[in-house]
Amino acid sequence: MAAPVVFLNGFYVGLEEARVSVLDRGFCYGDGLFETMRSYKGTIFRLGLHFDRLWRSAGLLNLPLPLTRMELASIVETTLKFNSCPEAYVRITLTRGESAPGLLVDDNASPTLVVFVKPFDPVPDEWRRDGVTVALFPSSACRTGGLAAQVKSCNYLSQIVLRNEARKRGSAEALLLDDEGHVTEGTTSNIFLVENGVLKTPPANQYVLPGITRQVVMEIARAQDLPCFEENLTLDDLRRADEVFLTNTGIEILPVSRIDGVAVGDGKPGYWTRRLHQEFLKNVEDRG
Looking at the predicted structure, is the pLDDT value of residue 224 above 70? Predict the structure, then answer.
């Protein structure tokens, strides 16, 4: 198998040769953004939506992208071809680039741009069959101070700490609550519940990332005549739910069977969770 190839600042290089400066602000301060995408049969799913979010987030951070959307799409496609990996995980990383130490931004710094590809590793079959357990973490919702919207920042320290703590508790994911007790999201996932035939998810805000899979799920739900609403959710809402599931690019739609050890509904993946995942996979085949 050929060695992995990455795109780094204008060049396609072997993964073992790819290096960034110790003065890069992404390395020093987490000053940057990333996007994670899925390639199905060699085609990135909803690339346009990922680019929309990347450009929107870069604008919020006043972090200029050094390429056009068409140029970046070509780089992603070329990196995929170099790696001969049709079923893949693709990550774009954009940082503010190299500058002198300190928090003040150098407007003349050249951004660092990386495109990385690796084979897709699906979740265990039993997770889909039986559902997963999630652990609750009150007053732990993550945000980037000074921004009114959540972005995929390169600073993921809080999410790392919380996910590891959830794993110690035997859970697949941490579910984060804000200081008012509202359910926000997981460390790398959005959350949905179904109650009495209605789909609900927390609204995108400074604590909740507008996930691409989240958006697609809401589109599919409406196409299936499943009422879907964005609204603030509490622990009581989760406890009353008939079904709960997580979404993100890698897991797609993943059923939650237990929350802090307490069964969701009958403790098994529900009808709408299964149906929405089936429709999601059809959407992948149809649209790419």
Answer: yes
